[in-house]
Design goal:
Number of strands: 18
Oligomer: single chain
Radius of gyration: 30 Å
Order of helices and strands: HEHEHHHHHHEEEEEHEEEEEEEEEEHE
Distance between the termini: 23 Å
Strand order of the largest sheet: 1-3-6-7-10-11-16-17
Strand content: 25-35%
Length: 569
């Protein structure tokens, strides 16, 4: 019952899209009232969205004043469900735990994806806002009021983020520190995007809002790909950033009232019957993740069969950007860019498999020698426990990440001015990032003296004769260490064509700000390739046995297994 309730809360709390009506074309018949300024309080301020061929609507003399912003009317509340969705999504971390009660103490979650761009994109919103202001582009507020609003925004954001960070003490996925949740970079970026949205998106052009929130979303995604944050961290960070901006501007409206304002909002009344074009930043969850069962699959490279090996996945977390331009109120064309992360369920089983596999390789080698020569133990010269003295398994990605881009037709069914049902038919491409388990072993080199016959290109094990095995020493009489690091498991998927559709319900909260609840369905055929390289450490342990034509030379060829799957999500 608790699981069902949790899923319903996730579905209700996360499947929310921030939609921004981003059309700037005079062909649409918008109800336009004057955009007023302090400099020209009695002049209609025409922009690209106003048609110079239309007669202006009659307005009362009071309309020529810059309107007083009403605090509660100016809040969208969208930050709250996004923050809550981050709390609910924290369950994803159960897919990977740092210690496993010391069962897998030498296990880390790392990644090779590294970029520092997110350290700079988090400041995109305030940088553009200040740049426009310095450049003389009139926004919502005068300098003093704007700086006060910005200061309160970052003050509230810093208090919330740091207060939660150092109270919850969540471990980062890379294991570097206990201050993962929520993401400060993401909160900073969304707070800045909200400032840009308030100052210029609502008063000049919705494209400022589009740019600000798009860069903020990209910042959050990069934080996950950099392995610095869980998806739950960026969801809660985004919610805090938006809430901080909206609370700060509400406080400014309460403190300053109608003072120090330069420009009112673009007075376009929401009407989804006439103006359904949109750009949205969306966050959601995905069901229908595949179970990959490689058990019994034959290797394409070697004459072996995979043992009992299954990969199960949890619910996906989806972040994306989507937009469509409508030719009329019913039909439009657009596209979608989406990042879907699907955590592996039960990495502990995968780690157990890897450790067992390495152990069996070592034991199998000694058992073979013992079987061929009962006096094997007498011919050992050295401590066999020194073969592997240190072992570390590094999970380079604990989830499958899919990057998808789609395009196609969008359809709008208006119910009223504020409500509309939407659907779409899309086709696109899907690219999957590899999932890796890296092994790092240390030990001492050994020399093996043996002989055997080769028949038809294969070792004749009946002719195998073991002579001796001893630790390798250098000229100074010191044992020679070895160190081997390689990809033990690698799971990849081919680039594939995907088909998608979906249904949505949109509520126009303001003239260029909507809420959208959506349910999408995607289908694609993928070929998953599992590459397993269990014996690679033998190259360091027995260097003379893996040379060309050596006993273990064929072990240098990894096992490759493929599985075709129809993925519906």
């Amino acid at each position: 019952m608790k699981v069902a309730v949790r899923k319903l809360l996730l579905l209700a709390g996360v499947l929310i899209s921030i939609s921004v009506a981003a059309e700037e074309n005079c062909k649409f018949d918008w109800n336009v009232t004057p955009r007023l300024t302090k400099e020209h309080p009695k002049a209609l301020n025409l922009t690209l969205s106003d048609s110079v061929f239309d007669e202006p609507s009659p307005v009362s003399p009071d309309a020529y004043r810059v309107p007083v912003y009403k605090p509660l009317d100016d809040i969208s509340w969208v930050g709250i469900p996004i923050f809550i969705s981050g709390i609910i999504a924290k369950g994803e971390k159960k897919a990977f735990r740092q210690d496993y009660n010391n069962t897998h103490a030498n296990t880390r979650l790392v990644t090779h994806f590294k970029t520092s761009i997110d350290d700079y994109t988090q400041y995109f919103g305030p940088a553009l806002t200040l740049g426009l202001k310095i450049g003389g582009v009139e926004g919502r507020s005068q300098w003093g009021r704007m700086l006060a609003s910005m200061g309160m925004t970052y003050g509230i954001m810093a208090a919330l983020v740091n207060g939660i960070k150092y109270t919850s003490k969540e471990l980062r996925p890379d294991g570097t520190s206990y201050n993962s949740w929520p993401s400060g970079h993401t909160a900073t970026s969304f707070a800045g995007a909200t400032i840009l949205h308030k100052e210029y998106g609502l008063t000049r052009s919705p494209w400022y809002s589009v740019g600000g929130y798009a860069v903020a979303t990209a910042t959050g995604v990069m934080r996950v790909l950099n392995n610095r944050h869980w998806v739950s961290d960026i969801l809660s960070g985004a919610g805090i950033g938006i809430m901080s901006g909206e609370l700060a501007y509400m406080l400014s409206d309460l403190i300053f009232k109608d003072k120090y304002l330069l420009r009112g909002e673009l007075q376009r009344y929401p009407d989804l019957r006439k103006n359904p074009s949109f750009f949205s930043i969306s966050m959601g969850i995905g069901f229908g993740s595949p179970e990959l069962d490689f058990s019994g699959v034959k290797s394409q490279e070697r004459d072996v069969t995979m043992g009992d090996f299954k990969l199960k996945f949890q619910m996906s977390t989806v972040v994306g950007a989507e937009g469509a331009y409508f030719f009329n109120k019913f039909v439009g064309a657009g596209g979608r860019l989406r990042v879907r992360t699907t955590p592996v369920k039960g990495w502990s089983n995968v780690l157990d498999y890897a450790e067992k596999d390495i152990k069996e390789r070592l034991e199998g080698m000694t058992e073979l020698a013992q079987k061929k020569d009962p006096d094997f133990s007498l011919k050992l010269n050295g401590d066999v426990n020194s073969m592997v003295t240190d072992k570390e398994l590094s999970i380079e990605s604990d989830h499958l990440t899919e990057f998808a881009i789609d395009g196609g037709l969008y359809f709008n069914i208006p119910i009223s001015k504020r409500f509309a049902i939407g659907t779409k038919v899309l086709i696109g491409s899907s690219l999957t990032q590899a999932l890796d388990l890296n092994a790092h072993l240390k030990g001492t080199q050994w020399n093996m003296d043996y002989s055997y016959n080769v028949v038809d290109g294969k070792i004749d094990w009946d002719s195998f004769s073991f002579d001796a095995m001893s630790q390798a020493h250098n000229e100074a009489g010191e044992v020679i260490p070895y160190e081997a690091e390689w990809d033990f498991f690698t799971l990849t998927a081919n680039r594939s064509t995907k088909f998608g559709t979906g249904i949505s319900l949109t509520y126009a909260h303001k003239h260029n700000f909507c809420w959208r609840v959506f349910l999408d369905y995607d289908n694609t055929y993928k070929t998953y390739t599992l590459t397993k390289d269990s014996e690679h450490f033998m190259t360091g342990l027995f260097p003379n046995a893996v040379e060309s034509g050596g006993l273990f030379a064929d072990l240098l060829v990894p096992e490759v297994y493929q599985l075709k799957k129809n993925v519906r999500a």
